[in-house]
Design the sequence.
């Protein structure tokens, strides 16, 4: 079997929310799990995130939100990926997100949402099982 | 504190006892290989006079209200007055915030605390593209003075004190508060309250930043200088460990980085030519109270003793009020769990009790649902009642610093102090806290601690009830407060209406004057005050600064 290339995962913080503890722990956990990790830093607009994701040629974007603006931001990221013909970049997320919003976001195309208390290992395993390297363009 | 003879006897007895302990342990085992605090600090099975045999009572412990204030800053502590029960609140619109404030005052709360929404915290108006989806979400939106007039409607500002959790635009919100007071006929020297105004911890931990480090420091010093002259009852900086801890720091890191930030502000004010005893008494502190009960109590006691020493010995302060570390406490948001949320009431109770036994001046207790959303009224009431039960039923307020003299608590207090000094010396070696932050030093230390902690939780080495032990599948329904998206539109409409009806030439003139003052290193407060009174928006003022000083970008260490 040919050696699979490393997964490239972007961890991103959309909006003005500054709670980055979870995003950083996850970024570090992904790196330790052998993924290539790009962390955007704080205060990114959905446009900036999608631009960076396409430029960096990532396989998935993990969005973190703890200040209540997840619906707007996550949906905008999905929408922009579609507009840019990059909907094969998987989107998942984590943070303080109520159950009914999780249902809505998943229906809209967010692959998974991790809520507070999720072990890093669970997110790592989920990525291993569900994210595949995209075809190069 | 003990005679050499006693110490010798204890030492002999202890050696015998330790051998018995070892035999017992070999025979029966222990629950864990190492017993550590939530911060990873190792705890011994037993503490005895040997652990504090070097203690000079007067130097290390002493009396409440006296240097080094280990036992508290007032001579009678809670026998005189209870701590201020100050619940952080702010939601949706200005009208709703006003309504909740009046409710809390009617329920016996004694001070107000305003939470602003993210756009306000970041110096953005509600109609800015970056504010989309965040208006009124985590607090109240303030675009202009008109919003502040509504928030404090029918609340006499000479009777209440108000804490505003605001950082990059702190000077602007303070100016708005002064303007509202003036409209009520209350003078600047009659109002009391606090602005957080602590940018150093923003760069370190909370990440609500706007301008680069050095101009941020300049505006903070402007505020301190102005208040020292004009608003003498205002607490100019709330030097905050809370966010440092919530970002994943250990208790020692929280203690050390917070005091290092305090040192940074004192140095900056001294550089401006202010006199230490004129401004230092108005600095206050804000700590986290996490779940490890004794570690937190030790942290609070060590903090007071260290600050007193820093102010007296390092900065030569003469006024005892400069030596006193006054602090607000919030129970640890990061200790709460989304799983089995009613357990959060018990966590908060323990944390609140630690804060009280640690001698806090004011306290916010988290609501059980805060990990899920903004708290509901019912949850806020339980959280406030928690404080009232500690204050008026438990009896812990009857005597001052009841844990003093505990071999364990005193030894732990000493140990935290020693470890915090190591960090402070390291930061001094790096060239001070501003330089250390530019180098990413505290940020990286915290990221490391946060990751270590998470690994311990994930591996089950550190138990969190309901998360990695005693897990249940059943969903416990909790009423969640939701903020209506339509409010964003209403807030934007109000902002547009004001922009249309105000005297726009006056606004432009005020902003131009502010720009010149910003470029010329004049104290900015009088210019900010003029601008807010003309109904210039928060962002219009901040944009002047963004143009003059540039913006800070997150380096994203992980």
Sequence:
């Amino acid at each position: 079997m040919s050696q699979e290339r490393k997964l490239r995962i972007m961890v991103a913080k959309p909006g003005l929310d500054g709670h980055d503890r979870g995003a950083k722990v996850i970024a570090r956990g992904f790196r330790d799990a052998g993924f290539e990790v790009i962390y955007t830093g704080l205060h990114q607009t959905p446009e900036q995130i999608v631009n960076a994701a396409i430029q960096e040629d990532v396989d998935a974007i993990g969005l973190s939100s703890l200040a209540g603006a997840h619906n707007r931001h996550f949906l905008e990221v999905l929408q922009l990926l579609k507009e840019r013909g990059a909907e094969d970049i998987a989107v998942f997320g984590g943070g303080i997100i109520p159950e009914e919003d999780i249902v809505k976001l998943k229906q809209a195309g967010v692959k998974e949402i991790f809520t507070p208390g999720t072990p890093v290992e669970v997110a790592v395993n989920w990525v291993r099982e569900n994210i595949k390297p995209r075809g190069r363009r | 504190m003990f005679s050499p003879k006693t110490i010798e006897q204890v030492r002999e007895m202890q050696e015998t006892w330790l051998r018995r302990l070892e035999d017992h342990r070999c025979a029966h085992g222990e629950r864990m290989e190492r017993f550590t605090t939530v911060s990873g600090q190792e705890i011994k099975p037993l503490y005895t006079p040997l652990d504090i045999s070097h203690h000079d009572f007067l130097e290390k412990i002493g009396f409440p209200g006296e240097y080094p204030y280990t036992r508290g800053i007032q001579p009678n502590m809670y026998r005189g007055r209870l701590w201020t029960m100050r619940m952080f609140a702010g939601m949706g619109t200005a009208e709703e915030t006003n309504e909740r404030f009046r409710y809390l005052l009617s329920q016996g709360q004694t001070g107000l605390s305003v939470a602003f929404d993210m756009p306000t915290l970041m110096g953005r108006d509600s109609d800015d593209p970056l504010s989309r989806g965040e208006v009124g979400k985590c607090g109240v939106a303030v675009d202009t003075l008109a919003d502040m007039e509504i928030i404090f409607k029918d609340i006499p500002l000479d009777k209440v004190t108000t804490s505003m959790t605001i950082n990059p635009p702190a000077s602007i919100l303070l100016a708005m508060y002064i303007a509202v007071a003036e409209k009520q006929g209350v003078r600047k020297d009659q109002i009391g309250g606090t602005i957080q105004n602590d940018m150093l911890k923003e760069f370190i931990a909370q990440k609500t930043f706007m301008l680069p480090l050095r101009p941020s420091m300049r505006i903070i010093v402007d505020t301190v200088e102005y208040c020292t002259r004009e608003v003498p009852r205002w607490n100019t900086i709330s030097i905050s460990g809370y966010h440092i801890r919530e970002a994943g720091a250990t208790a020692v890191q929280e203690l050390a980085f917070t005091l290092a930030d305090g040192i940074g502000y004192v140095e900056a004010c001294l550089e401006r030519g202010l006199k230490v005893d004129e401004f230092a008494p108005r600095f206050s502190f804000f700590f986290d109270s996490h779940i490890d009960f004794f570690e937190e109590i030790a942290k609070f006691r060590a903090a007071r003793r260290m600050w007193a020493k820093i102010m007296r010995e390092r900065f030569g302060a003469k006024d005892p009020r400069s030596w006193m570390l006054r602090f607000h406490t919030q129970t640890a948001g990061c200790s709460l769990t989304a799983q089995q949320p009613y357990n959060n009431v018990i966590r908060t109770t323990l944390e609140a009790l630690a804060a009280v036994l640690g001698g806090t001046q004011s306290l916010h207790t988290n609501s059980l649902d805060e990990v899920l959303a903004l708290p509901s009224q019912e949850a806020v009431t339980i959280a406030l009642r928690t404080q009232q039960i500690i204050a008026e039923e438990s009896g812990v307020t009857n005597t001052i610093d009841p844990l003093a003299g505990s071999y364990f608590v005193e030894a732990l207090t000493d140990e935290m102090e020693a470890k915090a000094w190591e960090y402070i010396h390291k930061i001094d070696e790096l060239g001070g806290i501003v330089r250390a932050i530019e180098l990413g030093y505290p940020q990286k230390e915290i990221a490391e601690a946060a990751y270590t902690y998470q690994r311990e939780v994930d591996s089950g080495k550190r138990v969190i009830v309901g998360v990695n032990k005693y897990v249940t599948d059943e969903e416990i329904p909790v009423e969640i407060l939701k903020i209506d998206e339509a409010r964003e539109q209403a807030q934007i409409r109000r902002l547009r209406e004001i922009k249309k009806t105000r005297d726009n030439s006056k606004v432009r003139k005020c902003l131009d004057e502010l720009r010149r003052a910003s470029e010329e290193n004049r104290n900015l407060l009088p210019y900010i005050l003029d601008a807010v009174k003309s109904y210039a928006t928060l962002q219009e003022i901040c944009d002047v600064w963004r143009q003059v000083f540039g913006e800070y970008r997150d380096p994203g260490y992980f």
Remarks:
- The first strand of chain B starts at residue 84 and ends at 85.
